[in-house]
Specification:
Radius of gyration: 29 Å
Distance between the termini: 34 Å
Largest sheet: 4 strands, antiparallel
Shape: globular
Strand order of the largest sheet: 1-2-4-3
CATH superfamily of the largest domain: HUPs
Number of strands: 15
CATH topology of the largest domain: Rossmann fold
């Protein structure tokens, strides 16, 4: 908002001077010196051959008169810009009256966001946390900035885990009814699945015959043979019910609850397209597509910055059909892209929020889709790879015994820890409130890190009501709500007088800029930081000014409007992060 105003003024002056080029404006790197700065004269002078300092002064002297800003040249050619008193008042009231608090729509693209990715028949665990947290935030960000977003959970429900689970249940005598027709139909439960899959998964690594039978069982499910397919559907129903419950507790909402199985009808269509293009070949009985490009090397992640960069062999071929005709993850992902482009259509982008370790898989899938024309040439296929959530030892977060922690246990731990924190603050325990605070702590702790980086999961630190944490932001919003409720005064014209008030306005403007940065980087860590900075600026203002006891009606009305502005900016940012604001804390 403000940067655009300043850029327009500067560019009009540059145009009048007949200089080829445009100016850009950024927030000041020295906030004590000025509010904004432009370093564009360096590149402009290079084009014209003019003296840096002289050109900067000419631009400032040619500016149209304005009461909102002051411009000053600092050697060698920096243009420093400050908001005037009138400028602060003008922009504060403009933000206050705007429903979106000054956040502009920047795109009208149609996007499908693929996140969540839970596997049916497997208990959700800590490794399933980051995808719904990051995906939900990006979805809300894209929507705020004007895009049409369709979210799909894309369940893993068509792979080997289904055959493994069914075969183990069968061998444990839990499926006799379906094959003999005798006795009463058993009720398949989540407990049965949570016992069967880990058991089968461990067996396949040591029992080759069991693994071979599981492959055959999986193929029968994929061919929709009975009773294998009916059993599969019952397992899916039980599992999805639990997945929906946990994703709901995390605040993740999906437009589509589709899985790999829903793309089954498109598998043969996709394979036909690929074969018709002459892209497929047979290797050891399997159908593959070569996707490596000339000169390609795959970097091996370095363990330290000083380590010599090493490379793997070129990208291996994408395997689309097993030796027995069964489909693989790459097959269903390619078929899913074909399904989405056929049934939804007009998608500018398809984005996947999946573990960074799946990078090569998506490179293969995307290349096949582009080579075969399954994805239009102007459609972006993007993999947003996230890092791992680690324990204090820097290794992936696990129990003390080394087991992977279940998502249900994580959620219960969040509730328990948040409940203890509430009790220590003298707040009566409430499970829903504890869930809101615990989830906010975890989300902010996650999202405040760059999406591609690993980070340490430190719940005690995340749950603090002070510092850069989710509960601190919730508490700030709650405190504003409490003040406004007690004030019982309508707001009025905002008049910015103190430095603390100026800091609030500047931080709202910085927060607004962070949305575009988050959109560009596909990571909301800057948005998290800017939200915290605004909350911190408000706290400083609150500690230094008597709002409810202010004697001047005009000043009090201004304060109330400023509080409403802060609340609107904070709640809008928290809504993007999918962090709820509790009624009390």
């Amino acid at each position: 908002m403000v940067r655009k105003e300043i850029e327009n003024l500067l560019n009009n002056a540059i145009k009048k001077l007949g200089v080829d080029g445009q100016a850009s404006v950024s927030f000041s790197s020295l906030p004590g010196l000025c509010d904004y700065q432009s370093n564009s004269v360096f590149s402009l002078a290079k084009k014209t051959g003019q003296n840096l300092y002289e050109l900067a002064n000419k631009i400032v002297e040619t500016l149209e008169p304005t009461a909102l800003f002051t411009f000053e040249v600092a050697r060698p050619a920096f243009i420093n810009i400050k908001l005037t008193q009138k400028g602060y008042d003008y922009f504060a009231n403009l933000l206050y009256k705007d429903e979106r608090c000054g956040v502009k729509k920047i795109s009208d693209q149609k996007v499908l966001l693929d996140y969540g990715g839970a596997n049916v028949a497997k208990a959700l665990h800590v490794g399933h946390l980051r995808s719904p947290i990051i995906g939900e935030a990006l979805k809300r960000l894209y929507k705020l900035l004007g895009e049409e977003v369709i979210s799909d959970v894309h369940l893993g429900d068509w792979g080997l885990q289904m055959g493994l689970t069914e075969l183990q249940l069968y061998e444990d005598g839990k499926l006799d009814y379906y094959f003999s027709g005798k006795g009463a139909e058993p009720k398949l439960t989540l407990e049965m699945l949570n016992e069967a899959y880990p058991k089968a998964s461990a067996r396949k690594n040591t029992d080759e015959e069991f693994k071979r039978r599981a492959d055959e069982w999986t193929l029968k499910i994929q061919n929709k043979e009975q009773p294998y397919f009916d059993i599969y559907r019952k397992i899916r129903e039980v599992s999805v019910k639990e997945i929906k419950k946990h994703y709901s507790e995390l605040g993740a909402e999906f437009d589509l609850w589709l899985g790999e199985s829903d793309a089954d009808d498109y598998i043969n269509k996709a394979l036909d397209i690929i074969q018709d293009k002459g892209l497929a070949r047979i290797s050891d009985g399997a159908m593959v597509v070569d996707v490596a490009v000339e000169g390609e090397n795959i970097p091996i992640p370095k363990k330290s910055a000083d380590e010599v960069q090493r490379y793997k062999n070129p990208m291996p071929p994408a395997i689309l059909k097993k030796y027995n005709g069964g489909a693989l993850y790459a097959t269903t992902d390619i078929a899913t892209i074909l399904m989405r482009n056929t049934e939804i259509g007009s998608l500018n982008r398809i984005e996947y929020i999946v573990d960074a370790r799946q990078k090569n898989h998506f490179v293969q899938v995307f290349r096949v889709c582009k080579m075969a024309g399954i994805s239009p040439s102007d459609q972006e296929l993007i993999h947003i790879g996230y890092g791992t959530m680690n324990g204090s030892d820097g290794k992936p977060f696990k129990t003390r015994s080394g087991d992977t922690i279940k998502l249900e246990d994580i959620i219960n731990m969040l509730i328990e820890k948040a409940g203890e924190k509430l009790k220590s603050n003298g707040v009566e325990y409430d499970r829903q409130l504890a869930l809101q605070i615990g989830v906010a702590a975890m989300k902010f702790g996650d999202l405040s890190n760059n999406v591609g980086k690993d980070y340490v999961f430190d719940l005690d630190k995340f749950l603090s009501f002070e510092g850069k944490t989710g509960p601190y932001l919730q508490y700030t919003a709650c405190r504003i709500n409490s003040i406004l409720k007690k004030a019982q005064v309508e707001g009025g014209q905002i008049n910015i007088e103190s430095e603390e008030e100026k800091e609030i306005v500047k931080n709202i403007l910085k927060l607004n800029s962070s949305y575009e940065i988050a959109y560009r980087e596909k990571s909301v860590n800057n948005l998290c930081l800017a939200t915290y900075d605004l909350a911190s600026a408000f706290s400083t203002f609150y500690n230094n000014h008597k709002i409810l006891t202010e004697k001047s009606d005009k000043k009090k009305a201004s304060y109330i409007s400023l509080l409403k502005l802060v609340r609107k900016a904070l709640t809008q940012a928290l809504a993007v992060l999918a962090i709820e604001v509790p009624e009390k804390m």
